[in-house]
Amino acid sequence: MILQINHDHQRFRKIVKGKIRDDLRKFLTRGELLGREGHKYISIPVRGIDTPHFRYGDNNDSGVGKGDAKAGDALGDGDGMGPGGEQEGRHLMEVEVSLDELAEILGEELKLPRIRPKGKHRITAERDRYVGIRQSGPESLRHFKRSFRRALRRQMMSGLYNPDAPRIIFERRDKIYRSWKTVLSPQSNAVIIYMMDVSGSMGDEQKELVRLEAFWIDAWLRKNYQGIESRYIVHDVRAAEVDRETFFRIREDGGTRISSAFRLARELIDKTYTASEWNIYLFHFSDGDNSSESDSRECCALLRQHLLPGLNLFGYCQVASAYGSGNFFNVVTEQLSSQEAVIATRVNTKDDIYDSIKKFFAAGR
After folding, report:
1. Is the CA virtual torsion 108, 217, 103, 227 positive or negative?
2. Structure confidence at residue 42 (pLDDT)
3. Domains plus CATH for the chain?
4. Mean pLDDT in the chain?
């Protein structure tokens, strides 16, 4: 019975994943998912699925329940809200899906290749591994099945077991516990450095596009790495490192000098992240406006000479601005087109996020 229930549950989960996959482009643009960041599970409304349930009786849908009511009596206290419709109701059920499952669906639907981390044998972390059993230990580690079998065998051998009134009484000698040892586990670490233009032309709508894309970038990379660090840089004519909340809320009215962010990113990497041991991802979000063509060329020089040799990926995402988009996208694609680690995308609306993420990770860097 338990095996059948597990089988049915797994089949139901496959149906749920199929529904999410069918509407993945829509889920990528759901801003309310962002409120669940940091949680292991996310509640997602899925249409067209009924919750599995038991149905009792002969299923002829006739009769009424016990009580004073009789056939034809109205149910409920109200008089209703207008005439009954003739259309089928739209079934909507909230299902809980883990971030790992969402990332898995994202990768399968976008046909993203698995990322092969570098430096995975250089960084190690301690973890506990269960390797056997022992006679003593905390109750939280008690091996229930083995303890149960020992108690049952003891009672049967001593003649204390009554099959007509089965009752298992544990004694101290029946209990056994899982044992563990601490092992060093190879660990692949990655750092994501997000940079964003926060000048006056980057409004709330543009920041929402950035936040949605960053959420799914995080989800995919965390699926591929055991350890992730995120750093956040904002800039107008000057750059500063900030926390995540400030990154998505701050707004300035000054001009734009993109090279200031690139120089700060270089300082962070040189100080903290050795390229041979860290998988480094650098993303820049902007509307494309820059203070001058010479500063745009300086950005390309910084990337080519100092940043790209140690990066897994530099992703530039240009979001549409109500004030008009600048020329930095063209500068990046023209001057760095030969650099394999450079990917540039445009996101004008939420619908473009799907294609942007697919382009960023198509090579599995």
Report:
1. positive
2. 56
3. 1-52+91-109 (no CATH), 125-184 (no CATH), 188-361 (3.40.50.410)
4. 76
